[in-house]
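Re: the pair you flagged

First of the two:
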Amino acid sequence: MSNEPLASKYRPRTLDDFVGQEHLVGNDAPIRKFLETGKIPSMIFWGPPGTGKTTLAYILSLNLYYDFHKMQAVNSGKDALRKIIKIALGNQQYGKKTILFLDEIHRWNKAQQDALLPYVEKGIITLIGATTENPSFTIISALLSRTKVFVFNQQTEEDIYTLLKTIAKKEYPHIKISKKVLEYICSLSNGDIRSALNILEMSTTLASAVKEGEKAEITEKILKDTVQKPLYYDKTGEEHYNIISAIHKSMRSSNPDAACYWVGRMLAGGEDPLYIARRLLRFASEDIGNADPNAVVLANAVYESCQKIGMPECEVFLMQLAIYLSNAPKDNTAYRVEGEVKEDIEKYGNLPVPMNIRNAPTKLMKEMGYGKNYEYDHDLASKKSNQQCMPDKLKNRKYIH
């Protein structure tokens, strides 16, 4: 078909044509071994978009004697699953196995995943689930324990370049495409082969719109003017947590350059600046604390400033704060003490307050010993008593070292 998209037209049909993921499909790699034996387990393919999850499932379907069914989790549910299970039970009678490829499996809720579980457990269905989200958070533990998780990495720019060069030479011999332009397309793709092919296809269409007698050429200007650089960022998904973790750990390592980069990445991906400001405010107390009390003051001021002026003007406030927090001295005493106190409360429960530091507003309470032997520290020459303030079971407990 002349109008078939490149991503579909050049979808690999064998492992030898598959691009990247050598740790999965290379010599002696697990997926290749499964395919060679003709028997595969239930699996979860986890990785960013365009890294070959669906393509690899397609290759397995072409090269195994299995009955292959594909479902999109976003628009399929239990009814569609029941039909496939009925087919799978029939296949069992003839010794034929059934693969269910469930794309975006993370979109299925617990009840839907529970409905699938017994058939995976009994081997009636071999499941291949594809997800861009961390399976630990999105797939029920019972189903996860019965599958093997394989991680797909972002494709390297070198692998994408090799593929684009081959396709461009074959499909667009009449269009001039320089090495620099192909490399730029690889950079724009963010490790997503499908995105790279789509960019190539769009740019060749635009490059072809030239006057008669002129040479068609993809220029950097065409790419910059027509392609918005995609950022792989999901405000509620795995990459959200990866990047906020990167911000925290960069500041903790006193690396302001990295901290600013990750803050910028979050903002470029459309993150709410107030979310970032809240996380930086927390960091100011958790990782800096009393080593520099002004950190909390500045972080709070930046949060309020972000509330007042919003994006894009507040971006510089967040950068300023990230630099300050990165360069500030670090002390996690308050954070550590918080955890130790919680442990003691959980371990010992409601320990009674020592009598000497209890309030005694009534005569009866005084007669019962409330406040007895209390030392008023201001009346002491040292201004500091050694009286017991902790419960008896914790009287020698020290949180601050």
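Second of the two:
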Amino acid sequence: MRTRYQLIVLLLLFGLLVSCAGNAQYKKVSLNTGTQDLPAKPLRPGKTALRVAIAGVISPKETLRTYNQMLDYLGKKLDRPVQLVQRSTYAEINELLRSGNADLAFVCSEAYVQGNRDFGMEMLVAPEVRGEALYYSYIIVPRDSSVRQVQDLKGKTFAFTDPLSNSGRLAPTYLLFQMGETPDSFFSKYVFTYSHDNSIKAVAEKLVDAAAVDSLVYDYTIAKSPEYSGKTRIVWKSPPYGSPPVVVHPAINADFKQELRDILLRMNEDDAGKAILHDLMIDRFVIPDDRAYDPIRQMDAKVRLQSEAK
């Protein structure tokens, strides 16, 4: 635990020293990052492994702990092996799905919006939490910070999560856009942590003055890690957005796609599925309304236009 904490500290301090580009753009990404991918092949009935891709919404170790039961559940229901394919960024997850090197993925809302626009990425289901398939972006600060509103963060240090994260990058960037600011003009330094729980820890340990995080991950982390509950507080909550969905490539076999959707939609109807959802703090999976993602599309278009105008 201490080693992991030190690594986080070094990463964040390095990021703060070198700063980051204003409207961070992904360069060509490498898919060879240590996980063992199966060769790309058509998804068809049989015993070939279902490759499930997950990005670092939470840190790799926590992702394994959180999702292992979910993947085991899918494997038993499908009667086939399931392979977890982990990557550090949403861009890599989108590329895995686009190229056929993953069959199913858990992505954030902006990654879905971009994947849907770029290659027709399709939603299967989305999580419903506390009766709604919606979530929020939070800006959090240390509990004893003098910051009371977003305007107080002028000239402070800040942590984003991933350049393709809605709650961890787009929503707060759009908020700055509405204020006539950009991350470069507003913050003294900022860094990408590539996981929401690391952003929460960075604020709790006062490595940065504030961070933007996913409300679902924040609520989960606070509930599961009480040591952080008294160290941070929320100073801004965004409007609601469509929940981060479970997605597939549009060319996936239609019957198999429906089978996957049905399994996830019915998880809350059996004891094993209910227990997994309870641990994830999810009520159930539902079929999402694509219109719930229109605000993200509109924010993305305006922020990109601002960047291109520079």
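The chain has eleven helices and 13 strands.

-B.
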